[in-house]
Structure formats: C-alpha cells, structure tokens
Write a structure and sequence with these properties.
It is a single chain. This protein has one domain (6-91). With 96 residues, it is mainly beta. Helix content is 10%, strand content 33%. The chain contains two helices and six strands. It has helices spanning 66-71, 84-87, and strands at 13-14, 21-27, 32-35, 45-53, 56-63, 80-81. The protein binds zinc ion (ZN).
C-alpha cells in the first residue's frame, strides 16, 4: 500500500512519550489529535480534508463511531488511521 503515509503530506512531529513520528490533525470539533502517520486497516479516523493555520497545513479528520467503523469496510483507496493515544507505548503517562 502506498500513498497513505501522512508524514509525506504533512509535517510530522515527535511523540513526547515514545519519540515515534506523529502527525497532528484537527477534528470536526476543532480538537487537536495526534495520529499515527501510517494507515491502519479498520482504523476509526478518516481524513476529510486539509486545514491550514499559522503553523502550516494539517489534516482535518473525522472520528468514526464504533458502529460506523465496523460496518463500513475501508473502501478501496481510502485510508483509515488511528490516534496515537491508542498505540503509544507510553500512553499511560498521558492519563490526567
Ligand atoms: Zn507515543
């Protein structure tokens, strides 16, 4: 699979916890969310467009509901992602 790496299109950042590359996205609610740059089959985050602010461009994303992400198989050519909060080995450190 090619073309789905968000780090190819957007500035990557580094997770403070595990140093892995992440890409900051903005959700429908204008919340910032770190994504793993590589697409994941069955991921629940869908990129809907490109936003722009004073720091440059970032992906705009929509978080799919549980039923939605399970019932819709990834259509061909559509990449799905997961938030780094789910995959980070240091995620427990982020608990507030
Ligand atoms: Zn991390």
């Amino acid at each position: 699979m090619t073309g789905g790496d968000l780090a190819d299109r957007f500035n990557a950042a580094e997770c403070r916890g595990c140093s892995q590359s992440i890409v900051w996205a903005r959700t429908d609610n204008d919340k910032s969310m770190p994504l793993d740059p590589l697409p994941v089959a069955g991921g629940n985050v869908k990129v809907t467009g490109v936003g722009r602010d004073d720091r440059g461009v970032h992906p705009r994303v929509r978080v799919l509901g549980k039923r939605e992400s399970e019932s819709l198989l990834d259509p061909p050519g559509e990449h799905r992602y997961v938030t780094h909060f789910v995959t980070c080995p240091k995620r427990k450190d982020f608990k507030r």
